[in-house]
Amino acid sequence: MAVKLTNLLKNLPRTAGVDATVREYEEGFRTARDSALEDEQRAERKVNDLYYDLVTDFYEYGWGRSFHFAPRVPGESFKASLARHEHYMAHVLGLGPGMVAADIGCGVGGSLLEIARFSGARIVGVNSNAYQLERARRYAADAGLAHLAEFLNCDFLHVDAPDESFDAAYSIEATCCEPDKVSIYSEIFRLLKPGACFAAYEFCMTDRFDPQDPVHLKLKADLQLGGGLLEIVAPQTIDDALRAVGFEVLATRDLALQTGPSVPWYQPLAGSGFSLASFRSSRVGRKVTDNSLRALEALRVVPRGTLRVAQTLNLCADAMAEAGRLGIFTPMYFIHARKPG
Question: What is the pTM for the complete model shown?
Answer without folding.
Answer: 0.87
